[in-house]
């Protein structure tokens, strides 16, 4: 059905230097930079209990229970309950990695950045998120409070176990590499723009020529869409392989990692197609929108700061639910870290739904048979 | 009687409150090179876009090859070639690939497509540039590639929308010769241009469009009859008396004169040439004559007289 035009669409994508730069060269260079930057951390990091201080200005039995569960032989924390001044001296000297202040709210102080500090931040974020639920229960159903505290302690304990006992040990730095692949998937959206512009008379000169041809618009758009997915999918497979085999960072089972990359690419192309199909905006402007948008979504999922996703989870969890970069990262971590197949499938479905929304929007915009002006 | 290839009836196209095409009727016959002339913003490109079903229109009907034209009329589109005003090629593909790519939108058979692509390459004279990418081509070569992409599938009807913009005279001649050869091969051609001499050189019939309306139509000879001055005569004279000048002015074909001691300029309107009767009168009045020059109207004169001389871009 697609014939030679489909092959030329593949060739056009392979020869689009700026696209290849964004989805192959740039991520590889960035991945290498990550690897070099983190190499010292990797070499020196060996998981041990994290020494922390707890400064209690108020009683908080819930927090005490959680800390108790996270310490001990199988725990991840080595807490000491001390005065504020002493705690700050220990933090300054590097003997402890963080201070939990127990006031009306729990707060955390760290003096440096690093893997241990990131874990403490994640713990703090998780606790604050859970504490709100406890408070709600206290107001609505006080009789259920003991059960809720127990459940929270169990969750915290599970968190401690999960970080150590799943398919592989969690490494907060892996998030950067998951995000790197997510960035590749989102940056292919620039290639998706061409699917629309090269087939719409009101968007490009080439579009005007192809619109005059004897091949139906549906076939032309599908040819370009599938060809772009093929190339973008290959690029994401290349990126996943690069991360796994060259950088030595495991993304989990290779097959599911490749599937994640391909599904991410399908989303990226669909997003690009949707943006590309918007009339009366120049192609360069569309590119100028998509590239920063892709980077912004990756930023929110932790490309530049690994704990960003946790921060979003705390303050605006819906962003993580709809941010495709965060979904792609979750897909990697759900298989690589937790081995959660059903969770992975749910994330796949979620990403496909978002992709379908973009694709349908693009198709609705391009289905117009002729134009009011060109 | 040649078949009608394109028929436009009562076409109206509005852009908001602006009427770009205003109740336009056109009928183009098989084998014609039909010129569409008009100032900027007169509605030429809009008319072509409506003909190609790229633009929607408010009223009227368009028939091509006797069938109603629509955006999904692929059986009509397969016999149409388009050479757009702006070069429409892929920057990432070389000359051969570009032509082959656009040909693939019409022709499935690989062997036939190869033949057609080479034929198109030879037709526009790009044999030495098949591996070149568009960025490496000069303006003239790029225009020729644009033409090759539009005609590669051997269409019966071809639209040329200002194909010679920004090309050197050699390339322009090459392009115009090519269009005449296409006509000789049986193609019907619709040609728009700002260059009057091109239209005069190649078009068998011409329509002048202004403000979306057809203001004149016919062969170039018929159009020239529409202007006030069909011939301007310039003669160097010595000894012309007022009596002799009055006799010249009294001739029916003379519409005006200018005389400044040695140069006599006479504006005429006639079906034939007027120089001989003027010379006879001058001889009768013993006027010595030097050089005598006669200037027939060009299509440019016709165009300016019909559409006016004010700048149209100001209105846009």
Describe this structure in words.
The complex is a heterodimer of chains A (374) and B (316). Chain A is mainly alpha-helical and 374 residues long. Chain A is built from 16 helices and 4 strands. In chain A, strands 2-1-3-4 form a 4-stranded mixed sheet, sandwiched between helices. In chain A, strand 1, helix 3 (61-70) and strand 2 form a beta-alpha-beta unit. The model of chain A is unreliable at 159-167 (pLDDT under 50). With 316 residues, chain B is an alpha/beta fold. In chain B, 33% of the residues lie in helices and 29% in strands. Chain B contains 11 helices and 14 strands. Chain B has helices at 44-51, 74-77, 95-103, 110-124, 139-151, 169-184, 196-202, 220-224, 242-249, 275-284, 299-307; strands at 4-15, 18-29, 33-37, 59-64, 67-68, 80-83, 157-161, 188-192, 205-210, 213-218, 231-238, 254-259, 263-268, 288-295. In chain B, strands 6-7-8-3-9-10 form a 6-stranded mixed sheet, with helices on both faces. In chain B, strands 2-1-4-5 form a 4-stranded antiparallel sheet, covered by helices on one side. In chain B, strands 12-13-11-14 form a 4-stranded antiparallel sheet, covered by helices on one side. In chain B, helix 3 packs across helix 4 (110-124), helix 3 (95-103) packs parallel to helix 5 (139-151) and helix 4 (110-124) packs antiparallel against helix 5 (139-151). The mean pLDDT of chain B is 91. Classes of the chains: A mainly alpha (374), B alpha/beta (316). At the A-B interface, helix 1 and helix 9 of A face helix 3 of B.
């Amino acid at each position: 059905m697609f014939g030679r035009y489909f092959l030329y669409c593949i060739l056009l994508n392979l020869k689009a230097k700026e696209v290849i730069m964004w989805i192959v060269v740039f991520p590889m260079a960035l991945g290498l930079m990550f690897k070099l930057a983190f190499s010292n951390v990797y070499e020196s990091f060996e998981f041990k209990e994290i020494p922390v201080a707890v400064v209690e200005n108020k009683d908080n039995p819930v927090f005490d229970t959680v800390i108790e569960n996270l310490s001990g032989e199988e725990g991840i924390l080595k807490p000491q309950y001390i005065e504020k001044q002493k705690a700050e001296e220990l933090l300054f000297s590097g003997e402890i990695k963080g201070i939990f202040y127990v006031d009306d709210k729990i707060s955390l102080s760290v003096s440096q950045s690093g893997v241990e500090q990131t874990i403490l931040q994640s713990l703090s974020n998780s606790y604050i998120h859970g504490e709100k639920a406890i408070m709600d229960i206290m107001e609505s159903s006080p009789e259920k409070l003991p059960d809720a505290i127990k459940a929270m302690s169990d969750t915290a304990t599970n968190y401690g176990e999960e970080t150590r006992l799943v398919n592989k040990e969690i490494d907060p730095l892996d998030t950067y590499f998951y995000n790197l692949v997510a960035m590749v998937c989102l940056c292919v959206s620039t290639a998706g723009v061409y699917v629309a512009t090269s087939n719409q008379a009101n968007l490009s000169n080439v579009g005007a020529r192809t619109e005059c041809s004897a091949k139906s618009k549906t076939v032309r758009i599908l040819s370009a869409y599938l060809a772009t997915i093929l190339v973008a999918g290959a690029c994401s497979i290349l990126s996943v392989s690069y991360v796994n085999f060259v950088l030595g960072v495991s993304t989990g089972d290779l097959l599911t990692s490749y599937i994640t990359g391909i599904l991410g690419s399908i989303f990226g192309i669909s997003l690009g197609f949707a943006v590309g199909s918007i009339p009366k905006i120049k192609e360069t402007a569309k590119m100028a929108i998509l590239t920063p948008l892709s980077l912004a979504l990756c930023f929110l999922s932790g490309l530049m700061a690994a704990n960003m996703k946790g921060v979003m989870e705390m303050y605006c969890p819906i962003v993580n639910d709809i941010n495709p970069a965060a979904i792609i990262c979750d897909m990697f971590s759900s298989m690589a870290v937790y081995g959660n197949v059903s969770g992975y499938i749910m994330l796949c479905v979620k990403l496909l739904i978002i992709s379908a929304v973009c694709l349908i929007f693009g198709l609705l915009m391009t289905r117009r048979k002729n134009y009011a002006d060109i | 009687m040649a078949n009608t290839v394109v028929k436009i009836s009562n076409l109206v196209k509005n852009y908001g409150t602006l009427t770009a095409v205003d109740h336009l009727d056109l009928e183009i016959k098989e084998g014609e090179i039909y010129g569409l002339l008009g100032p900027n913003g007169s509605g030429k490109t809009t008319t072509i876009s409506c003909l190609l079903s790229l633009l929607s229109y408010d009223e009227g009907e368009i028939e091509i090859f006797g069938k109603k034209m629509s955006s999904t009329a692929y059986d009509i589109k397969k016999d149409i070639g388009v050479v757009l005003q702006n070069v429409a090629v892929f920057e990432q593909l070389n000359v051969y690939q570009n032509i082959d790519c656009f040909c693939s939108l019409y022709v499935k058979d690989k062997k036939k497509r190869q033949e057609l692509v080479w034929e198109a390459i030879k037709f526009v004279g790009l044999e030495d540039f098949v591996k070149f990418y568009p960025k490496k081509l000069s303006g003239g070569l790029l225009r020729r590639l644009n033409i090759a992409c539009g005609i590669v599938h051997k269409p019966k009807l071809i639209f040329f929308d200002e194909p010679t913009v920004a090309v050197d005279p050699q390339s322009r001649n090459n392009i115009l010769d090519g269009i005449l050869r296409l006509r000789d091969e049986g193609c019907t051609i619709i040609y728009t241009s700002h260059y009057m001499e091109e239209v005069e050189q190649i078009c068998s019939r011409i329509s002048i469009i202004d403000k979306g309306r057809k203001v004149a139509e016919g062969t170039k000879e018929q159009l020239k009859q529409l202007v006030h001055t069909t011939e301007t005569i310039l003669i160097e004279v010595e000894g012309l008396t007022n009596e002799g000048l009055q006799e010249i002015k009294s001739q029916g074909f003379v519409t005006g004169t200018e005389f400044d001691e040695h140069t006599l300029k006479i504006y005429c309107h006639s079906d034939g040439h007027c120089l001989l009767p003027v010379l006879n009168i001058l001889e009768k009045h013993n006027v010595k004559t030097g050089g005598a020059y006669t200037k027939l109207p060009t299509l440019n004169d016709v165009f300016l007289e019909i559409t006016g001389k004010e700048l149209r871009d100001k209105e846009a």
